[in-house]
Design goal:
SH3 type barrels; 38% strand; 6 strands; six-stranded antiparallel sheet; mainly beta; 66 residues
Length: 66
């Protein structure tokens, strides 16, 4: 199962997820211990509180975890 994340609008990093189409869902590439624990497929590291998390169900739909 793959984990995905979307940068919250309230995050100071929200601009990194803004595009002309719908906001992207990034695949979580790596999780480590520390303040900036999550690296996404955009290559940047984020705090848990900056992200909403999703998993993909068998139909390919993203389901929100938090």
């Amino acid at each position: 199962m793959e984990l995905y994340a979307k940068i919250k609008k309230s995050s100071k990093y929200a601009y990194q997820g803004e595009y002309s189409d719908s906001p992207p869902y990034f695949r979580v590439r790596e999780i480590i211990n520390g303040k900036y624990a999550f690296t996404l497929n955009n290559g940047n590291w984020y705090r848990r509180e900056d992200l909403n998390f999703f998993v993909k169900n068998p139909k390919g739909e993203l389901l929100k975890l938090n």
